[in-house]
Design a protein that fits this description.
Layout (H helix, E strand, L loop, with lengths): L6 H10 L3 H11 L3 E3 L4 H14 L3 E8 L2 E8 L4
Antiparallel strand pairs: 1-3, 2-3
Amino acid sequence: MNILITKEQLKVLIEQEMTPQEQLDKFELYEDKIKSLFMGKKNVQKWKEHLESKYPSLVFRFQIGNDVLIAQAKIRPNL
């Protein structure tokens, strides 16, 4: 049986196999960490869920600053 996955699904699988430090480094280098503060609650929740699924070894906190919402990450404790 052949299972087809998209490039995006493969990318997520690869990212989940990274060490916690590799995930944090990738988040810090490549992720868009700043969103408009006016995104709306539903979109903010989707953004948070996206980050948590993409980087399962990290925990996220959001900070408001100058009309934007900023995502901050650190390695999840007890890993």
